[in-house]
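Re: export button greyed out
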Amino acid sequence: MLTNHEELVRVENLTKHFSLGGSYFTKNKETIRAVEDLSFSVYKGETLGIVGESGCGKSTTGRLLLRLMEATSGSVFFEGDNILDLSKEELRAKRQDFQMIFQDPYASLNPRMTVEELISEPLRTYKVKDRKDRLLKLVDAVGIPKDYLTRYPHEFSGGQRQRIGIARSLALNPKFIVADEPVAALDVSIQAQIINLMKDLQDEFDLTYLFIAHDLSVIEYISDRIAVMYLGSIVELTTSDRLYENPLHPYTQALISAIPIPDPSFLREKIKLNGDIPSPMNPPAGCKFHTRCPLAKDICKQIVPQLIEVEPEHFVACHIVEESLI
Amino acid sequence: MKETWRRFKKNRFAFVGFLFIALILVVAILAKWIVPFDPYYMDTNSTLTAPNSEHWFGTDQFGRDIFSRILYGTQISLKVGLIAVGFSLFFGTIIGIVAGYFGGKIDQILSRITDVLFSFPDILLALVIMAILGPSLTNLMIAIGIVYTPIFARIARGAVLNIRDSLYIEAARSMGVNSFQIMLRHILPNSLAPLIVQVTLSFAFAILAEAALSFLGLGVSPDTPSWGIMLSEAKDWMEISWWTAIFPGIAITLAVLSFNIMGDGLRDALDPRLKNER
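Workaround output, generated via the alternate export path:
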């Protein structure tokens, strides 16, 4: 578990709106509010999990943090520097410190490059010396046999490809890694291998992870703290243990109750959510969850709840929870 | 590269094409020493002789040996094909990749320029360019090159648009690879296949365009042994002497066919994903 709370990344009021349509002739542009006013910190050495339904903005958040996408507003401080303010050159230099592991290991590797070329590309880009040594160390760390270096990605299984992707993201000795659903495209049997590998590598290379997933069991297993996202906002953020033992936000409660338990005799009350996730094009006013919330009151429809610390290291954005405290 | 070559050799059909092109190349280099007659020499005593043991492919209306002229013709055809297509491949690919990769205003400007070039009929555009540059073999090659540049630009741009938003491009960007490197190492190799096929087609067109322009008096001088000129001249005589037209025609057909099948084989060989098929 965490011993210190030194901040590595601090996100403040991060917002991303995509505008849709709005060509020359139609002036009424529609806006998708993918990420809205997000604030959180990632501590050195931890794994912060981000979980949510598809379309809730979790992948967008990951990309915004690495500035693979320009944010609409807000800031992302990495070791004190606002990444979103850096010039092109400064950003390039900084990129060594934060890397990404992609969801789809089939699409994220250039099909015309051999394993060796793929993994040494970042090394060449930053003119690292003794590339061959580093390369061998990396493939050894992720468990790819040396004889496979001259092969192409299509000759590997999904799990092996993801190992290649992981080796590549580790090449420059980064401090921070955003893993965007790194196991979602893999077989369940392979998922555990990759997650364990990521855990081992975290110890070996002193890594900090931002782990994005939609699978609650996967995220529980790897994360120290977990942020639950709904329609572009964080609704609950706390340590992994507390989130599963004592979820406070009604949305989190519903999610947790939906985790299948491999015991047919175990009866549990499932909280069913009605309706679909609303469109991020015109999200509901007030609390965005009120349309599906079993506890919603009038106040929820009018005022946006703020993320408040209800107990140490436990943040919730919900009027009902807030009221129950008073 | 070794791997590509190994895969290419496996494809017999394409390999035959390659061998024939190699043969054309050798003939072009050695033409001076292997021709049985001087291709410029007019033997007025034996005009339009049918193929015989002396003149294998017969003689033309001036009594020049057709076989020798065809061997010499490889030089012109290869030269025009290589330089004109090389020109359009080089500039077209750069324009297409830059337009496709950066998009926005740059794309708008480059695409509109290629559209304008595209809107003229091939030969007419080549004629205009030749009229500006003046008739010579070099200018002919430049003119054909300019005419075919928009085709390569458009194909390259289309291929780039297909892969620009691929995850591996984003991955490269996330690792700090700069735009130039991304275009060179990721985009170019992955958009090469349709360009290679187009090279083989354009090679054929270039050989034909050279013939047409030379016939109109804007290319090489009429006495030069070029397959196109031979064919054009033969049209007046082919009713009484078929060999004047048939042999240059066969030469053009074989050369064009060889380039096409070699291009197909090369496309397959360049794609590692097709490796174990066939």
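The first strand of chain A starts at residue 7 and ends at 20. The button fix ships in the next patch.
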